[in-house]
Request: fold
Amino acid sequence: MILIYLFRGYISLLREKYSPGGELFDQLCPLWADLEDLMIVCTSTIRYFGPDRLDITVKSGVKSFAPTWDMVMKHKRGEISDTQYTDRYLRMMRTSYLDNKNGDWSAILNRRRVVLCCYCAPGNFCHRHLLKDILRDLCRVKNIEFVDGGEI
Reply:
């Protein structure tokens, strides 16, 4: 299974490098058709600026995936636990999905690779990891191969 992920990742990199539009690579590599339903999800701090970056912060990010200021501040002050934050964030994302499934959610699920970015330090509790888990579940439901790209 790991070799399949590595192969798919390598094919994805080749496709982006040698045929940004994809047409030439698709003609030269018919295997690509079998690899369309793949999503690689990574996480990083807000300092990551690659082309696959997705800012999911309440301050400057895509609102469909961001927590509220109230949640962030209460968590920072210790007024709500990680579990309480998780419960609130999951409820928010369920509502967000219902309200935006043909917009922001469809857009993120159609990306080959995405890096979820936020201000939290690596290794700390953070909603970017919660969103990655949500995307894993959505990929399973939609028959999209999910690859956890880890923290960048």
